[in-house]
Design brief:
The chain is α+β, with helices and mostly antiparallel strands. A hairpin with a 5-residue loop joins strand 2 and strand 3. The protein has three helices and seven strands; from the N terminus they run ββββαβββαα. The chain has a single domain, classed as Nucleoside Triphosphate Pyrophosphohydrolase, CATH 3.90.79.10.
Length: 148
C-alpha cells in the first residue's frame, strides 16, 4: 500500500496584448520550472490552497479563477524515509487556471530560485514534465477561445 499526497496550485497568466503570458516558477529544490503549488493546510479548500500558494510563492495577492478548468496530474514517487527505507507515494498535483490581477512583486526565496512571465512557446520550452506542457496548452486554448 502507498500514501497519497495532494498539492494544489494554478497556471497563472495575464494578458499581453491579445495573447496570454504565463507565470512560471523555478524550484530551488530541483531547479525545474513549473507552476506555483503546495499542500493544503488544515481545513483549506482546493482553491484556498491554490490562492495561498500563489501568494506565498509569487507575491500575487489577487487572482480570478477561470471556471471549468481543473487538471490533475497523478504520478508515483519514492519517499525516502531513512537511509535504508523508502516508500512509494502517489502524488496528486491539481492545477486551476488563474488570471493575475496584480503583479508578482515578492517571491519566496526559500522555495523559489526565480520566476518569470513567458509566452506559450517559451513556457513549453521550459516546462520539464509532459503533463505540465499539456495543461498549459489546454489553458492557452481555453483563454484564446474565451477572448474571441
Amino acid at each position: 500500500m502507498f500514501n497519497k499526497e495532494f498539492s494544489f496550485g494554478a497556471i497563472v497568466y495575464r494578458m499581453l496584448g491579445n495573447d496570454p503570458v504565463f507565470l512560471l516558477v523555478s524550484s530551488k529544490r530541483n531547479q525545474l520550472w513549473g507552476f506555483p503549488k503546495g499542500h493544503a493546510e488544515k481545513d483549506e479548500s482546493e482553491l484556498e490552497t491554490a490562492t495561498r500558494e500563489i501568494f506565498e510563492e509569487t507575491g500575487i495577492s489577487k487572482v480570478e479563477f477561470i471556471e471549468n478548468f481543473r487538471q490533475e496530474d497523478v504520478y508515483m514517487i519514492n519517499d525516502f524515509l531513512s537511509d535504508t527505507k523508502s516508500s512509494r507515494v502517489e502524488k496528486h498535483s491539481v492545477y486551476f487556471l488563474a488570471l493575475a490581477l496584480d503583479d508578482a512583486l515578492n517571491f519566496d526565496k526559500n522555495e523559489i530560485s526565480k520566476l518569470g512571465w513567458f509566452d506559450l512557446k517559451q513556457a513549453l520550452g521550459l516546462l520539464y514534465f509532459a503533463n505540465q506542457r499539456k495543461f498549459i496548452s489546454l489553458a492557452y486554448n481555453l483563454i484564446k477561445g474565451e477572448s474571441k
